Amino acid sequence: MAAAAIPAKASGVKATRNPEASRARILEAARIEFVTQGLNGARVDRIAEQSGVNKNLIYHYFGSKDGLYLEVLERIYSGLRKSQKDDDVRGLPPLEGMRQLVGNTFDHFVATPDLIRLMSIENIHYAQHLKGSTTIKPLYGGLLDTLRTLLRRGQADGVFRAEVDEVDLYLSISGLAYFFLSNQHTLSWLLDRDFVAAKRVAGRRRHVVEMVLSYLTHIPPEEAGGAKTEVIKSEDGQ
Amino acid sequence: MAAAAIPAKASGVKATRNPEASRARILEAARIEFVTQGLNGARVDRIAEQSGVNKNLIYHYFGSKDGLYLEVLERIYSGLRKSQKDDDVRGLPPLEGMRQLVGNTFDHFVATPDLIRLMSIENIHYAQHLKGSTTIKPLYGGLLDTLRTLLRRGQADGVFRAEVDEVDLYLSISGLAYFFLSNQHTLSWLLDRDFVAAKRVAGRRRHVVEMVLSYLTHIPPEEAGGAKTEVIKSEDGQ
Amino acid sequence: MAAAAIPAKASGVKATRNPEASRARILEAARIEFVTQGLNGARVDRIAEQSGVNKNLIYHYFGSKDGLYLEVLERIYSGLRKSQKDDDVRGLPPLEGMRQLVGNTFDHFVATPDLIRLMSIENIHYAQHLKGSTTIKPLYGGLLDTLRTLLRRGQADGVFRAEVDEVDLYLSISGLAYFFLSNQHTLSWLLDRDFVAAKRVAGRRRHVVEMVLSYLTHIPPEEAGGAKTEVIKSEDGQ
Amino acid sequence: MAAAAIPAKASGVKATRNPEASRARILEAARIEFVTQGLNGARVDRIAEQSGVNKNLIYHYFGSKDGLYLEVLERIYSGLRKSQKDDDVRGLPPLEGMRQLVGNTFDHFVATPDLIRLMSIENIHYAQHLKGSTTIKPLYGGLLDTLRTLLRRGQADGVFRAEVDEVDLYLSISGLAYFFLSNQHTLSWLLDRDFVAAKRVAGRRRHVVEMVLSYLTHIPPEEAGGAKTEVIKSEDGQ
DNA sequence: AATGAATGAGGTTTCATTCAT
DNA sequence: TATGAATGAAACCTCATTCAT
């Protein structure tokens, strides 16, 4: 999939004297290298070799290894937000909209393992590169808005429970889809199960969607003025 | 915190000629270094300097940087499983037992940020060190058992829904507690929120417990022979 | 001698930006270092310093200390076989051809003390590097052939004795010329004699040639159907 | 063979508090280590481990790695001279005495591969340790004497040729027996032959004895006032 | 726009040796 | 006599980066 994305080579000619193509080749090789090796494990030499360009060209275009990494990161993040298709679901009935939003997020995580790994890598590095980016943060502007919109409409309809924090909800949707992928290598070893087999993924998708919707559509007793409230409050002490 | 754990002879005396203490000092410094810098970013020099021992002593005791990393990893994992206190919750009423299990897991993740980071680091490295460990995997033997036991008892009581896969459940419990911590640096920047403030954490704990229990206690219509089944099945195509 | 061989651009200018020259300078410095210090005693740092190049360039060109050593070894061996000039002596009258072959071998050993030392070094290391070379062994293809040819022709002429094993002959020619050079440092100390003084060397050359030819031209009594055979056979028991 | 020489252990008890035994164990382990690994390749740690003593004891007894090496060297050399049994052959008929001397030397070299390797190692190091020894050189006092005695008696008898330099003769006897052993690893690879197979060794022994005796008993024409002298002199120019 | 050559700083690891008991 | 703990110097090698064209 990755290699297929490389243009040039069409004529078999090495993409010399074609700045666009060289840049693209570098970015593609860099993506693979950073994703598979991590930031500290990635080697500029390998990126140069894999992209078929001179090592110095990398510095010419991207300034430094970190600069190259940041551009890779920005491209990956930009892809994530595009695929979440917020606008498409805003207008749907709340339950269906939420179902699709959860499903979309799940599907995108499954489809782009690179994203999962780069997110982990970036957090290992305390997000210091992300914080130096000017292009990524704006992408997240509308995200919570969409969630909030769906939530409110669902609450107004009496379909969703009240008092749902949209950040918490986002964290849960993402966490349910993220963890089993990000930690698949340790988990599959410890639990003796292959998580990325197609059938398993389909099952997990159902489970995740169901869990989120169960939570949203469950109207707790106390909201109807009922009892049992003390049980839930009792754990605050922890 | 770290330095305080070292049983130095008396006051602030450097623990020379005390192999136990030297080993402990190295491990403590290594833990901090690996956790904060990652495996590739960690520097043996820094570990030696921070632990106050000669660099060679590290190789004498642990063989290599990787050997030291593995021992750090094993200790952290061993701590995780100890704190999950499976046995304590097995005998509780299913709902309460599950509530405590979820809470315990959440609390332990919050209490040991090292664990979160090392798990991420290890997955970035495809769990290749973990797979070389003989001590970690056995720790996970009873985990799914506990979950299964609670589930079955709850299902027998009619409190929990049927057809819950215990691995899926484990992944969800862990994912809900893990993601907001593991990815806190990118998320807090992108969402403008501090996730680890005490109040936020308490709120998230409630949310996570509530989500899991909502899922478990929600008896889907079809289990009562109802409709709406087609809606859930409709997303398989995605 | 060494420095003079470097084709530096003009006068004493450091041959930067000239990979051929850099490679040659490294090899020359490496040869001296390995020959004088042995494989384990050689220091890459010294080679870098002596050749005037950056240490890393050595790894860039030769991969490792062992790789550099192997290339030095290959070059030295290649020089040996070239100077043995097999073909030149094949057509000569057997006695004269053999005399020249012995002399050539002796002269080359005397002329290239490096070869003697590297052979010793390589044998101390059980020839493990040599066995990893693809270029050295082929050089030895024609060697025994030449010996065999001369031997047969001499035997046909009745000049040489029968039943001479060409490998034994090769070992003796080489051993007579090799040992007093390879072990000159212990021997000159123990026997109070300087073996490499020009006059001594000339004398030894005569002695070696004479010994080999004496052996070859001596027709043992038994070959003429005579007695004394039992004396020679008597030592088999040893 | 080596391990069998270690005393102690008779009672199964580790040889603590027995300085003689400890010293012997160290020397035995050191011999093996130096012989197989060379001087620079030898590891004090391995010697300590193999001899079962504390590393510090080595320094206590021998002062340094070099000191230990020197003692190993002295013991090996002392063994060589003992076995050459000069005196036994002095009284024999010249031809038989010489035959035995050559055979003894050959046999001893074959029997003590350690000696061969240590000689090579010591020469790689320019005999600098040997020159620091006070015990080895005296061992060589009588060596040339024996040769000279046999030679003169043989010459007086008319059995040996005149004008034989005893040092040259010694170098040749040793070289013929030494080279094929010292360089066996490179040679067996290059010539595709196993030199140390028992049958090969017996054949080479015959060859070596025969070559030396052929030389000694060959009375060149010029000694009888003959011609051909110019041929031999002609190679001086080389 | 692009390249091949070269570098300096620093990485992990090794090893002979000494310390303190 | 003997030991286990610890060390300092230096070894081989790596890697992001820059130079000169």
Write structural notes for this entry:
- 4 copies of one chain form a homotetramer.
- Chain A has 13 helices and no strands.
- The first copy, chain A, is mainly α.
- The first copy, chain A, folds into 2 domains: 12-63, Homeodomain-like (Arc Repressor Mutant, subunit A, Orthogonal Bundle), CATH 1.10.10; 78-219, Tetracycline Repressor, domain 2.
- In chain A, helix 1 (19-41) runs antiparallel to helix 2, helix 1 crosses helix 7 and helix 9 (143-156) packs across helix 10 (166-182).
- Chains in contact: A-B, C-D.
- The structure holds a DNA duplex (21 and 21 nucleotides).
Low-confidence stretches of chain A: 1-15, 226-238
User: What's the CATH class of the largest domain in chain A, please?
Assistant: Mainly Alpha
Structural class by SSE content of chain A: mainly alpha
What portion of residues of chain A belong to β-strands?
A: under 5%
Radius of gyration of chain A: 22 Å
Protein name (chains A, B, C, D): TetR/AcrR family transcriptional regulator
Keywords (chains A, B, C, D): DNA-binding
Pfam families (chains A, B, C, D): TetR_C_29, TetR_N
Domain HTH tetR-type (chains A, B, C, D): 20-80
